[in-house]
Amino acid sequence: MRTAVTLIAVVASAMACGAASSRPLQTTSAPPAGKKYISKRYGYSIVLRGKYLWFPAKQQWDGQFPFGSTGQVDVIAGYYIDHKFAVAAKPVPAGTTLAGWEAFVLGVQRQFCGGLRDFGASSLGGEPAQEFVNDCPGPAPGTTWKVITLAALHNGRGYLLNYLSGPTTKSAAERRTYEAGRRSFRFTQK
User: Fold this and answer.
1) Mean pLDDT for the stretch of residues 125-141
2) Which one of 37, 61, 134, 172 has the minimum C-beta count within 10 Å?
3) What average pLDDT does the structure give for the chain?
4) Do the Cβ atoms of 45 and 185 come closer than 8 Å?
5) Tens digits of per-residue pLDDT, 50-78?
6) What percentage of the chain carries pLDDT values higher than 70?
7) pLDDT at residue number 109
8) Cα 170 from Cα 111, distance rounded (Å)
9) What CA–CA distances, in Å, run from 50 to 34, 77, 101, 111?
10) Rounded to an integer, what distance in angstroms lies between the CA atom of residue 55 and that of residue 42?
11) Any bridge partners for residue 86, and if so which?
């Protein structure tokens, strides 16, 4: 009887060790995947971590300044944090170049924003893009949104992505959030 109990204990220990060693080791602390927001109107998806409110565009963007209240811009607004992504797209004539589209986007942003700076090459959804920073009037008098604007072309459309952060947001934090969103951006219409 004693031998049987010992044998059962040895077998149970061996099975527990085997089960423990067959579990995958967690060697990384990967961030949570986030939530995917899909725009059927503008043909893209973006994945963001944290809590956001999604306001999809209700009508096609007309190319004017991309105010979220027009219903022509997809807005993904932080729930607990003062930042948002605003995305719009419009058909462009065949032969439109990225430089030509960037010039159009610059004109749109200049309608209400100033301090355009930090121009540089970037990408959006695997497409070449142009990026710049600008300051736009905030929701309250005397406040300013810090805005990173991205201009890109894909499948006969010109895309404008604005990342807006409030005046109290630190530059490093805003850049991290923007970059995470930009890197997760995928075109869903080929």
Assistant:
1) 92
2) 172
3) 84
4) yes
5) 899 999 999 999 999 999 899 999 999 99
6) 83
7) 95
8) 26
9) 7, 11, 32, 32
10) 13
11) 75, 162
The two structure tokens encoding residue 69: 């209240």
**99-108 contact pairs (CB < 8 A, 24+):** 99/130, 101/151, 101/152, 101/153, 101/158, 102/130, 102/151, 104/63, 104/151, 104/158, 105/130, 105/149, 105/151, 105/158, 105/160, 106/132, 108/63, 108/64, 108/65, 108/66, 108/160
Per the CB < 8 A criterion, the answer to whether 105 and 98 are in contact is no
| Alpha carbon distance 88, 68 (integer Å) | 10
Question: pLDDT tier at 190 (50, 70, 90 boundaries)?
Answer: low
- What domains can be seen in the chain, in order of their start residue? 35-187 (3.40.1000.10)
CA 44, 63, 160, 37 torsion: positive or negative?
negative
Quickly tell me which residue has 């994945």 as its tokens. Answer: 47
